[in-house]
Amino acid sequence: MEILRVENLSRVFGGIVAVADASLSIHEGQFVGIIGPNGAGKTTLFNCITGMYGLSNGNVSLKVDDKFVSIGNLSPSKIARYGIARTFQNIRLFQEMTVLDNIKVAMYHQYPYGVLASFLRVGIFSRNEAMIHQRALQWLEEVGLVEKKDSLASQLSYGDQRRCEIARALATNAKMLFLDEPAAGMNEQETKNLTDFIRYIHIKYGLTIVLIEHDMKLVMSLCDHIVVLDRGICIAQGSPKDIQRNPAVIAAYLGEEVDEHVSH
Amino acid sequence: MKKLLSRFHWPMWAIILGVYGLVAILIEVDIINAYYRITLTQIGISLIAALGLNMILGLSGQFSLGHAGFMAIGAYSVAIVTIAQPSVIGWFAGMLLGLVLTVVVGLVIAIPTLRLKGDYLAIATLGSGEIIRIILLNMKITNGAAGLSGIPQFTNWTLLYIFIMFCILFMARLKFSRFGRAALSIKDDEIAAEAMGIQVTKIKVMIFVFGALFASVAGSLYASFYYVIKPETFGIARSIDFLMIVVLGGMGSISGTIAAAIFMSLLTVFLQSFAQLRMIIYALALIVLMIYRPTGLLGSKEIFVNRMFGKKVKSSGNSSS
Q1: Touching check for A172 and chain B: CB below 8 Å?
Q2: Inter-chain contact A132–B200, Cβ cutoff 8 Å?
Q3: Which residues, numbered 183 to 202 in chain B, qualify as contacts with chain A under a Cβ-Cβ cut-off of 8 Å?
Q4: pLDDT tens per residue across span B243-295
Q5: What domains sit in chain A, N to C, each tagged with a CATH number?
Q6: Do B173 and A118 touch (CB under 8 A)?
Q7: ipTM score above 0.90
Q8: What angle do CA B252, B284, B118 make, to 5 degrees?
Q9: Residues A19 and A53: beta-carbon distance below 8 Å
């Protein structure tokens, strides 16, 4: 069942067309990989869908309560509240806050109470704070960071920061997860652990995941649908097998060049 | 019943009531004489205003150089109302009027300016503080540059202490709530906070208005202690005084602001006779601090009375002192 629809999305910066006329359709529970050479517009497409950038043209709609709602040009926080969470290419944790508080921030809207309730410390405050605390610990348990809950996010190792960022995105109660190069800067073993972890949360929470990644092994093993961008244009879509055989993709990206790319 | 008792933090209450009682007795026996009472009031008023600024600066990470402007609103409201109606009820009515005006002015300033960042925000808030001062300077009801005099005195130790405690409690409870966390996340990384569903502008504006309300209360207490207020009293220099307290104590730290407010006010008193030297020592202290401890005395940490006495407390649901 379709959950997200991108229609003719374009984004222009000055005279540069970062994304041109991209259309894609994502189904519930799908694992979509977005690949393409550097500068192909992958992150720009992510930023447009998650509201970080406005759209120059086109539309994005998301299924909310069985109805499609246009989310193009909405604010990122509104889109996040509709159930789209993301991680960033360069990790953006709240560095000066503890790991636990990082997760708790993401639950701002799930267990609400007013300023007055927080000042008077009435029942609803205690109940909801207790729920937030408990749920945050559960998320940390899930990603294996529960022992590090009181350290500052900046003190975590690189791999742990990635996990923490994913946990934070999950804690927003998202139904769609957008991961921007989650394996960037990781060695083979770390990448393998991360791959297993992402596969695990995908199945366990029935999430729809969209992923940008340069690591072809990771993409091919995780994704069931792949979108190839090149110079802002969506040049191919399909199953991993189709993509590997697609001549346009081979010309643009795989073939000789990719061997060189992977070996680096 | 047992549960209720265990939630009652004896050491904290002992300190809160002990400080109040001790100072009240010292005033009664005139060890804290009229001269020291001025210092005491100065500490209290600076503390309340600085806590407000610390909320804006330390929690949501927004810069404000117009804090004294909100103090002026509170001060003039109380002055005008109590001159016409010299009673405690009049004082409270004036204070409430000040709070209402502060909310209105605060929103008008916050909504457009909080879209700015860094230096631009500093300039914009500096400008708004000056606009408030210039308006007061040119209005009939505020008596222009001469200011208002003969304001009845209602600010005493009890009233001051109640407001100090209220403000500390308010900020502490806000800090350790979902609003505090949201504000700190905005300070840390606005883009990530927005991506987590936090309505960044809404939280920023909310914290800004709360901070302004603290300043307004400080102004109300000020007017009712010093008999005379002038627009000049609430200029940029005063905003910078508050800023120094916040920076010295540590951004986001309530305990730090308390310590710094006391320290700065005492320093001012001891250096009273060398008025010129005072500014040099201020400046030197700030430079030394920024070199050796750029996060302020306490950074963003808090000192918890309950923890000092070995009582186990949860990370949320306690207040600091």
Answers
A1: yes
A2: no
A3: 184-185, 187-189, 191-200
A4: 989 988 888 899 999 999 998 888 877 877 777 777 788 788 778 877 888 77
A5: 2-92+174-263 (3.40.50.300), 94-155 (no CATH)
A6: yes
A7: no
A8: 45
A9: no
